[in-house]
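Recall that a protein's primary structure is simply its ordered list of amino acids. Everything else, from secondary elements to tertiary packing, is in principle encoded there. The following example makes that idea concrete.
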Amino acid sequence: MKEFIAKKCEQKLLELNLQMFAGEGGGDGGSGEPGGAGNLGGTPPVCAEPISFASQSELDSFVDKRLAKSLETAQAKWKAEQEEALEAAKSEAARLAQMTAEERAQMEEKKRQEAEAERLADITRRELRLEAFEELTERNLPKELIDAVVLTDADACKKSVDSIEKAFRAAVEEGVKDRLANSAQPPVFGGGSGGAPEAGSIGSRLGKQSQQKQESKFFKN
């Protein structure tokens, strides 16, 4: 679930309109190589030589053979499935024949209860899914996170949404902090070295500025 939420957080971060990132530029737009998606700058795929036929009858014969082969494969698969189903039915019939009337009644009742439980569980899941959608919307969370919500019962659903929100908010906050840290630029100082100013350089510059102001004041007239 953490990986799923992290992925959704990354998508959410891309949608955030943060003005502080406005000057970063559009970037490269991806690291893909020029060319088609199936051939990323590599050698072109080797295509098989086209099949040619001397006459229409030769083409018809080729097509008939291919169709016959496909039909044979499909028939063999269908036959195997039918035989498997028949054997399963025979086994079930033999098992039922060995049961008493009471045992058969108990088995039928068990099947009925299982089917009813599955039907009710399906209804519960659908209802909880709708409620979870509404809850995610109210909390301004991506609806795609519904796939991570536990839909077994109402209590588990609510706890699941709470956990998802907590993890999502934390992931978004962490992502914003990382982007802020990456976008921060160190201050640029004079001197052409690109590093921090040398010791005494600021005081020396301020002293020169003060001296120039005094000279301009004394010799103004």
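Residues 149 and 161 are 6 Å apart (CA to CA). The helical segments are 2-15, 56-97, 101-138, 154-183, 201-218.
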